[in-house]
Design goal:
The chain is an alpha/beta fold. It has a single domain, classed as 3-Layer(aba) Sandwich (Rossmann fold). 30% of the residues lie in helices and 23% in strands. The chain has helices spanning 13-16, 24-37, 81-87, 130-144, 162-175, and strands spanning 3-9, 44-50, 95-100, 120-128, 149-158, 178-179. The protein has a six-stranded parallel beta sheet. Helix 4 (130-144) runs parallel beside helix 5. The longest helix has 15 residues, at 130-144.
């Protein structure tokens, strides 16, 4: 039987109001649309999390482009509390958590969200941030599984900047990801 998954990309404190946050004002309308999807007609919920060691290569102090963010076992790396609450109402067997960026020497924006599931035919991608991790995860999934319909619901995605978000959207389209 064909199955559906909701991919919740990096809905973490650090990307909301942390060092790399889009800001709570910008996030709350996005959150309303994410919340409508959680508890929907999905067989799986894939939750990706940046989970960096404190000396990660993407951090400015180690030569990378970003401020320190989503460091393992810190509040910054926690899921948004309201998402955690909603996921608490979902059958735990339906939730798959994927931590990324755990190797201090390797940058990792995206993740193939279907890699551990069988019979998936549809994936909806939402979360933070459209510019980087959402776009990269959607594209990686589509490239690895061309038979899977991968869609990105833009009103349930937050962005760091308009220009880079536009580039991320165009990259998704070019890979065959449908934009809603």
């Amino acid at each position: 039987m064909a199955k559906k998954a909701l991919a919740l990309i990096d809905v973490q404190v650090g990307f909301i109001d942390g060092n790399l946050g889009i800001g709570l004002d910008k996030f709350l309308p996005v959150w309303e649309n994410i919340a409508k999807e959680v508890g929907g007609d999905y067989d799986y919920y894939v939750v990706s999390k940046d989970w960096h060691p404190s000396n990660h290569c993407s951090f400015k102090e180690y030569g990378g482009p970003w401020p320190s963010h989503c460091v393992q076992d810190t509040k910054d790396a926690d899921l948004y509390p309201k998402l955690q609450e909603l996921l608490g109402k979902v059958d735990p067997k339906k939730i798959i958590v994927i931590k990324k960026g755990m190797d201090a020497k390797t940058e990792e924006y995206g993740v193939d969200v279907v890699r551990e599931m069988k019979d998936i035919k549809y994936v909806k991608v939402v979360g933070l941030c459209t510019d980087y991790c959402v776009s990269e995860s959607a594209r990686m999934t589509k490239k690895a599984h061309p038979e899977v319909e991968v869609v990105c619901q833009l009103n349930a995605c937050g962005e760091i900047a308009v220009d880079t978000a536009k580039a991320g959207i165009e990259a998704m389209k070019a890979t065959g990801v449908k934009i809603l």
